[in-house]
Amino acid sequence: MPKPLHIGVYPGTFDPITYGHLDIIQRATRLVDRLIIAVATNVNKSPLFAIEERFEMIEQEIKTLDLSSGVEIIVKPFDTLLVNFAKQEGAQLLIRGLRAVSDFEYEFQMAGTNRKLCPELETVFLVASESFQLIASNLVKEIARLEGDTTLFVSLSVAEKLKTRFQKQTH
What we know:
Layout: E1 7-12, H1 19-28, E2 34-40, H2 51-62, E3 72-78, H3 82-88, E4 93-98, H4 101-117, E5 122-127, H5 137-145, H6 156-170
Parallel strand pairs: 1-2, 1-4, 2-3, 4-5
């Protein structure tokens, strides 16, 4: 009998994908056989990049990861309740990244709510590596908007996309 797949879902807006996200993705691949990067289409967050652009960036960035474990990574959109998406995908784990203590309160409430809605789904918190704890997509966007160097936080390719986007907005 084949071993059952351990499937994890790492949700987020990834607007844009940062080195912090990649750190969590890389580390999550040690926990699962299949990792689904669930890209929220949440219009309440007013993303800078369209869903297709975020998909393209994520798919390009995950190619740079060392995936010698053979884990399968899939990028999918979602616009439903996260637990419903996870159940639909057959996932057992929700992967959440924590940067700072301030993240914990929100994530703790979310994990508790998700457990009530779907008791068989576990939430796993991965604490961001020290060098990535200060990275937040909204701060990266602000640095880019003010024409600062974002390459400390995102890849060169993502930095170029940010620069181009903000140049278009100011002209």
